[in-house]
Structure formats: C-alpha cells, structure tokens
Amino acid sequence: MAAAAAPAARPGLLLLRRTDATFSAALRARYRVLDFYGSGAPLGAFLAAAAAEPDPPRAALVVAGGAVLVDAAFMDAVPSLRCVVTTGAGVDHIDLAACARRGVAVAGAGKIFSAADRYVRAGLWPAQGDYPLTSKLSGKRVGIIGVGSIGWLIDKRLEAFGCVVSYHSRAPKATSVPYRYFPDAHALAADCDALVVACALNDATRRIVGRRVLDALGPSGVVVNVARGGNVDEQELIAALREGRIAGAGLDVFENEPHVPPELREMDNVVLTAHEASFTEESASDLRELMIGNLEAFFSGKPLLTPVPLP
User: Fold this and answer.
1) Is 243 an active-site residue?
2) Residue 310 carries which DSSP code?
C-alpha cells in the first residue's frame, strides 16, 4: 500500500503586531506563525532566528504607527521576505522605496467618555446646573487635509450632515472630488470651523498643522486628527488649546504613542482615543478578513487585494 502523502507545510508568517484570540487562531490555522511579541526576544534576535529557519518566512503582518519599522535593515535581516501586509491605512512605517528595490509587495488596510458625561458622573449637574450648550455639526464649514480613501469617506459623511466641505491635498482632484480646493493648509484653515487631518505622514505633511495653521483656524475652531501624530505639531497644539487660540481638539493619534502628553489628558475641551478611531467589532472583523485575504492571495501567487503602489 502506498504511503499517504505528507500534508503540505504551512507557509511561515512573521507576526509583528498584537492580535486578539480570534485573529490569532485564524492566522495559526493557515500559517506557521512566528510571533514577535510572543517570543519576548529583541527585534534583531527575533528576525535573525526567523531568517535561520529551514523554510524562512516570506510574508510579514505588521501594525501601523511605527511600533516596528519595516525598513532596509529589517528586510536585510530577513532576505526571504517578499510581502508585507499592514493593518493600517498609512504606510509611514514602511520604506516603500526599499520594498520596490527588493521586490517586496505591500498591502494596506484599504478602506470615550465626553465632557458632558464626566460632568454628570462628577455630580456637577445638581451643584452647578445644566451643562453649557455646545455647537452642532450640521452646517459647519469643515476642511479636510488629505482626500485619500479615509478623507473621501469623511467627506461623504460630513456632506450628509449638511456641512460645507473643502479640502487640501498635493493637487486638485479634478472632477472626482466635488468640493472646493485650497492650495495650502493655512488657506484652508482660515475658511473653516473645523479642520480634519486625514493625510499620509511624509516629509511634506510632517507638522503640516502648526502655529500658523492653528491661528488661522481661530478661537472657535476645532482640530480633529485621525491621521498620524506627526502631522500636527503637538506642542503648538497644546499651547493653542491652553491659550484659547482654538476651541478644542479630537485626537486619535499622538506623536509618541502610546504616551499622551499630560497636558492633553487634563483638558476638558479635548477628546482622546487610543489610535482606534475606525474600530468597531464589525470593522475589526472586516480587517481580519482583509489581512488574511491579502496573505492568501500572496501565497497563492495571485494579485494582492489592496496593494500599496510602490515608487
């Protein structure tokens, strides 16, 4: 009787992000997972051990935000790497030029308590009366810095609230974006009640929102940052909030995550979230399926589902 064929070995996967039990189980059912955070090893030693495996990993799953930088040194440490899948929309933690030179494909993610809540919980309602009135969103002039996949979705939601939407990006989006274009962030801020930062982080957009832009936004203006902490000059933002030069801020990202400046934590006119603005149970499930779909496509020799263009 002929011997049964041995089952095909599962392909190796570098896992460089923390995952919940559901995502971890789904990955381990398909791949031979080499877990950086589970290893307890320094990054250099972890990558060296992965590269020394008899069948070294050809794909890596990484978290956005710069906890681990996928740069030339990273790829030199694991020369077998041919695909990087990131769980974020931004790719500032990946050296795309280095990936292009090495033939490494990249796939992206494609597409708290309020002050009033604290007022009630602190027992201030009976002691100090009704909570002060705030401003409505509908009808506001909202400027978006960056109209990529995320900025475009924000635009559409604001439009449903009757907001007057305008935008700034590297160049006008021709007829695909039916909103007013501003050639620079300062001019955009001067024409807005609220400024939403949704652009990629690169040399041109690092601290694109600084003192000059904040002053143009003015004392009734609000800044919302869902891009990267480095897109906003954090110290200038703190100063503008403290001095009343802007009215408030909604921040999902910070310059030195996960560390948030104590000044921001103490301000009632600032809403803070932990770099999770897009996450719900449904979106987390969608993200798991997309990441696995990209990995399956890579290991099957098919086009990635959400490829990131390389230079």
Assistant:
1) no
2) P
